[in-house]
Design goal:
Length: 272
Amino acid sequence: MFSDRILEKGSRVACGVQYHGGAYVGWQLQSGHKSSTIQGLVEDAVSVVADSRVRIYCAGRTDARVHALGQVFHFDDPAGRSLKAWVHGVNGHLPKDIRILWARTVPEHFHSRFSALSRSYRYLVINSLIAPALFLGLASWHRKTLDEKLMHREAQYLVGEHDFSAFRASTCQSATSMRNIISVEITRHNDFIFMDVKANAFLHHMVRNIAGCILAIGDGRKEPGWLMSILRDKDRSKAVETAPADGLYLMSVEYPEEFFIPRSSNSFPLIV
């Protein structure tokens, strides 16, 4: 499946990685928490295979306890290894809750973050009277009955390019709060509520803050039209609490076709 042809030294390699974020403080390296970050563990594993220190760059940093089905990162191969080695070799040095899914060579102007056209996140909610035992850490739980059709209608106010100041964390370091949401879809399958958001990029905690507001509309705490007013007023203090990290997934990252980046299969049980 993966070529064992040796690459030229300096070749740029893109990889897809899937991870269960429950045990980690997020993607990004943090002082004193290297072994508790996805980036730290993946960089260490890549460096072992390369036999030298390697820095990796991802499509989008995920927060503590957030999962990914289709994260993408890249690095420059300092040793001349095969794509097979960059998948199976790296996986051999990673914990079981982090897996490299694929690797491919890309042009030197490819950048996993800056070349991306869009990112897609899914927020998974179980809407039931009793909290489920089997989805602990994999889904958020909401006891009050949710009106998913109302939630979907109200969420359409967010589509388009807007100032999302009301949905950014106080610690967000982005130079601008302008973002373009391409689509928002909210659907139900039995007790599972799926919130799918696709945008050119996201602010810190943006998806979780959106989810918290949409849930407040869905269970009747807020009236229809309230979400539009929050967006218009650009005031985070007027919104509701940030939704828990449990249930948030980076589903996929889209790139121009010239890079031939594989699409995520999204074939995770009950998250399809």
